[in-house]
Specification:
The chain is mainly beta. The chain has two helices and 29 strands. 31% of the residues are buried.
């Protein structure tokens, strides 16, 4: 009996072994996981729209088999790669891309997915041109250029090939270019132009704006001639990353001279202060208001002592009106410890406010009204007369205690009849 039991166990073991072997062999005959292997078509570049540009300009690359995914394309300018954000559009036969700001002259190379195309051309990167001044050499004023009078445009990094340089006076072409160097363009004022910015366009696509000129100085609003960034929307291109400007908080407006006392605001997360323009009110995002404020912050933000904000221009002889539009105002201890004065003074600097109850010596002055309710838009102005061409600074001086503020929509200049 015992012997039969042993044989039975052996038979079971043998059967189990045979089943295992059969299972193992059948498993080996099954196909493994299925993978699809993609072969990307080899891209071909047939043309590049230009072989030179300024940083930030858009160039076009044409060809075939580019696909439509910007993330699959690697485009190098002398080793500097264009980020995905630089790509304006991508189709199978056309790529539009902004030249990176840190791009350098040299070879352009490209790859798409796994296909390395290599060098597709050579490229020249021009330095960014800058206009520092536009001055009339005429007989009336440095800002009055009668048709035919010579105008000097000074700056840096100008292209010197006349075929790549075009000048316009507020949109009117000025074809009579006398000479061009990398730092100076001499041109004659064209007939029929109206007061406004003098602009230089390089290579037909890259325009740099200069300051304003006028063919004559007629009575009326002359703000565009003598002031810059004087009304909404106020520009803030000079902001630093450390100032944390978002378009809805505090900023320092371009072209205004603003001392540190008036730049007392500290945006959330900022390590550098700013001031002079507030974008935080409803409907003021990316529009802004000229603003001075004390309070609602730390010890530095809570007080303004001799805060100054102004612009300087050379004005021809004549009588003028300087006008502001106040959106809102509120001053703690008005005329006792808080006040803001609108001033016009001779020279390129602004006086201190030695007493909040008395305006400093000036060509013209007025104290800003208190308790103007937001949205009422009250205008205030001063007038002054110049016997001869004079350098004049126009703007505001303020001493403010905590919970004082001023918001304005513009500061305009008028030549009186």
């Amino acid at each position: 009996m015992k012997k039969n039991k042993v044989l039975h166990n052996r038979e079971l073991s043998l059967i189990s072994f045979v089943i295992f072997v059969v299972f193992l062999l059948s498993s080996c005959n099954e196909e493994g996981p299925q993978y699809r292997e993609f072969t990307y078509p080899v891209p071909t570049v047939t043309a590049i729209s230009t072989d030179n540009s300024f940083p930030g300009e858009v160039i076009t690359i044409t060809g075939s088999n580019f696909g439509d995914a910007a993330g699959a394309i690697k485009l190098y300018f002398s080793g500097k790669v264009a980020s995905v954000a630089n790509f304006v559009s991508v189709t199978d036969n056309e790529i539009k891309v902004k030249v990176p700001t840190d791009a350098a002259s040299g070879d352009i190379s490209m790859s798409v997915w796994t296909n390395d195309i290599g060098v597709i051309g050579t490229f020249t990167i021009y330095k960014q041109p800058i206009i520092t001044s536009v001055v009339s050499k005429g007989s009336v004023s440095t800002i009055i250029a009668q048709p035919g009078e010579e105008v000097w445009i000074s700056g840096e990094n100008f292209l010197t090939d006349p075929a790549k340089v075009a000048v316009d006076f507020n949109g009117t072409s000025a074809p009579d270019v006398i000479s061009i160097t990398s730092t100076l363009i001499k041109v004659k004022a064209p007939s029929g132009y109206t007061a406004g910015n003098v602009n230089v366009t390089f290579k037909g696509s890259y325009t740099v704006n200069g300051n304003s000129l006028a063919p004559a100085l007629n009575p009326g609003d002359v703000s565009t001639i003598f002031l810059r960034n004087y009304m909404q929307p106020f520009t803030t291109n000079n902001m630093l990353p450390e100032q944390k400007f978002t378009g809805t908080n505090w900023a320092t407006p371009d072209y205004w001279t603003i001392n540190s006392a008036a730049q007392n605001q500290n945006n959330s997360g900022a390590t550098v202060r700013c001031g002079g323009a507030n974008y935080g009110k409803p409907n003021m995002a990316n529009k802004g208001e000229l603003s001075l404020q004390a309070g609602w912050g730390d010890a530095i933000a809570n007080v303004v002592t001799n805060g100054k904000m102004y612009q300087t221009a050379v004005l021809p002889a004549g009588s003028y009106k300087l006008e502001i539009e106040v959106m809102e105002s509120g001053f703690t201890n008005y005329l006792t410890s808080s006040a803001v004065y609108l001033l016009a003074v001779s020279g390129d600097s602004f006086p201190d406010l030695t007493s909040t109850s008395t305006a400093p010596a000036a060509l013209g002055s007025t104290v800003i009204n208190n308790s103007i309710t937001y949205g009422n838009k009250v205008t205030q102005s001063i007038t002054f007369t110049l016997a001869s061409s004079t350098q004049v600074s126009m703007g505001f001086v303020a001493t403010l205690k905590a919970n004082s503020y001023l918001r304005m929509n513009y500061m305009k200049l008028y030549l009186l009849p």
